[in-house]
Specification:
The protein is built from two helices and two strands; from the N terminus they run ααββ. The chain is mostly helical and about 60 residues long. The two termini are about 25 Å apart. The radius of gyration is 13 Å and the shape is globular. Helices cover about 35% and strands about 5% of the residues.
């Protein structure tokens, strides 16, 4: 089962402003989330079962 990722217009503007080198790792992260939407660490460590997650991506973990 695959999930759809909805990207809000204000986020689309931020993605367009990213350097070209950031786009392939971002696309990979989105592809992962389409398959496993709960992937990533808890956004708040105090709430490890919360719905918000933090997925670090990029060759050196520079995206999150």
């Amino acid at each position: 089962m695959a999930y759809d990722i909805e990207v809000y217009p204000e986020v689309q503007d931020q993605i367009r402003a990213l350097p070209q080198l950031a786009l392939p790792p971002l696309a990979e992260a989105i592809a992962v989330l389409e398959i496993v939407p709960g992937k990533g660490d808890p956004y708040h460590r105090a709430n490890p079962d919360g719905a918000m997650r933090n997925l670090v991506f990029g060759p050196h973990g520079e995206g999150c």
